[in-house]
Amino acid sequence: MSLTLSRSSLIRTENFIAGHWVGSDGGSTFGVHNPADLRQIASVPDSTHDDAWQAADSAQSAFKAWKSTPAKRRGQLLKQWHALVMSHQDDLGRLISLEQGKPLAEGRGEIQYAASYIEWFAEEAPRIEGDLIEPSVDGRRMLAVREPVGVVAVVTPWNFPAAMIARKMAPALAAGCTVVAKPAEDTPLTSLALIHLAEEAGIPAGVINVVCASRECTPAVADAWLRDTRVRKISFTGSTPVGKQLARESAATLKKLSLELGGNAPFIVFDDADLDAAVEGLMASKFRNGGQTCVCPNRVYVHETVFNTFAYKLTDRVAALRVGPASETDSQIGPMINTRAVEKIMKHIDDAVAKGGKILVGGQQVRTDIGPNYVAPTVLADVSSDAQLCQEETFGPVVPLCRFTGEEEVIGMANNTPYGLAGYFYSGNISRIWRVADALETGIVGINEGVVASEVAPFGGIKESGYGREGSKYGLDDYMHIKYLCQGSLG
Question: What GO terms in the biological process aspect are recorded for it (predicted)?
């Protein structure tokens, strides 16, 4: 199977500023590579501080007109964008697989997921409402109205290059904000293709602006937006250390922030759980995108009375997973994003074994004929709580199994982390379900369910996993502020 696109014009290799496709002012570029075989796919601009500033100029110039565009019209333009994304979902899915490595079925699935956010916020735009407040004294009228915050800077990760740009841009545009964006250096092509379709949909010039930057030049781009008083909000998905840095450096201009940061999700299997359902839920949540998701289970706690049975059932399923490039239709686990990711995963596995963990399946790097960035899907038993697998986000196809004996004990283990993005548990006891759901310190809880993300639900974490919510009816809140109006002398 070829990963070539039927519409090659979707592959854009320039920045998009003020409605024009342009190179970097400095003329520099960097390469985008297929993680499956390390082949260079394209070169894109390696943007500078000046490029980022020009993007902000464009967004600020477009803001007044876009803010004044009726919400219904903004929604119509988003619907036109949604229609174009869906009509190109096969090509866009191939592009994701080409630059990110995930199996083709998952690439197509991500496009549908991304499009769902565009459609949702297209429909939410006309529902932006305020409140009429009962006045406290005679002769007044008091109102609360919601307004767009202004220019929004969007910084997205490499693991979901379509979904993350859509999940951030769609509510910003629906609210009446204009956008400057920097896609991840590993996967800029999908984001640029989506923006090309937004342009075709008729979204006005300057409303969306995108600049690419390598890992080395990203700080200069981010610094331009952090210092720019016209940029009123930053929406970032990525690591907790970077999120903390953005929070510190945005304080000088008091920007609004949405931070979706690191996770260390627990997955708990109680002794009264449906074990087959729990295995299916774990397979769906853990091995999607090869374990390279922020909400995938990172620590799996299984009650000691069902531990061996669960481990056997899980190992049997994991052993059957097919590792290979997206260009092979039967591939279920694609390459990791780069060699750094592989090195981290293998380091975590070696550390767990050194601390007493037992490899039940996998445990090794898979060197295929076309590239080195593959790791065998792995299950380890009796992993120590102080192993790196349990302390840090692994971001790979590795399941560490830990035993527990009681509910209170496992809740303590699950919450013993600075992170609080997602948590999962399986139980057939309705009283336990509500006790555990209340006790877990996470922003998202999957109860007898392994796939929790949806455009209709609020997505986000607590503690050091960040703040702000994306998706759902709450998703517009972070892109708007409330203005109070008080008119007097009416009586």
Answer: gamma-aminobutyric acid catabolic process
Q: Which string of DSSP letters, residue by residue, matches 162-201?
A: THHHHHHHHHHHHHT-EEEEE--TT-HHHHHHHHHHHHHH
User: The tokens of 40 are what?
Assistant: 């260079």
Measure CA 125 to chain center. 22
Tokens 């260079």 map to which residue?
40
Q: Considering just the CA atoms, what is the radius of gyration of the chain in Å?
A: 23
* pLDDT 10s digits, 134-177: 999 999 999 999 999 999 999 999 999 999 999 999 999 999 99
Q: In terms of pLDDT, which residue wins out, 112 or 491?
A: 112
Angle at 388 between CA 383 and CA 390, to 5 degrees: 55
Residue 128 near residue 480 (C-beta atoms within 8 A): yes
Supply the residues annotated as catalytic. Answer: 260
| pLDDT tens digits, one per residue of 426-481 | 999 999 999 999 999 999 999 999 999 999 999 999 999 999 999 999 999 999 99
pLDDT at 2: 58
* Strands ordered across the beta sheet of 15-17: 20-22, 15-17, 208-210, 178-182, 151-155, 231-237, 256-260, 466-467
DSSP states of 361-397 as a string?
Answer: E--SEE--SS-S-EE--EEEES--TTSHHHHS---SS
Q: CA 157, CA 172: separation in Å to the nearest integer? A: 18
Domains identified in the chain and CATH numbers: 8-261+465-484 (3.40.605.10), 266-447 (3.40.309.10)
**Contact between residue 291 and residue 335 where contact means Cβ atoms under 8 Å apart:** no
pLDDT at 268 over 90: yes
Token pair in block for residue 360: 């039940």
Alpha carbons 271 and 273: distance in angstroms, whole number: 6
Residue among 468, 476, 460, 459 nearest 122 (CA)? 476
Note whether 77 and 85 are within 8 A (CB): no
- Residue 343 vs residues 38, 288, 373, 395: alpha-carbon distances, Å: 16, 20, 9, 11
In angstroms, how far is CA 331 from the centroid of its own chain?
Answer: 23
Provide CB contacts within 8 A for 351, sequence distance 6+.
387, 388, 389
Q: What is the three-class DSSP state of 46?
A: coil
β-pair partners for 146 = 482
Which structure tokens are listed for 21? 């496709």
pLDDT band at 366 (very low <50, low <70, confident <90, very high): confident
- Which run of H or of E encompasses 351? helix 339-354
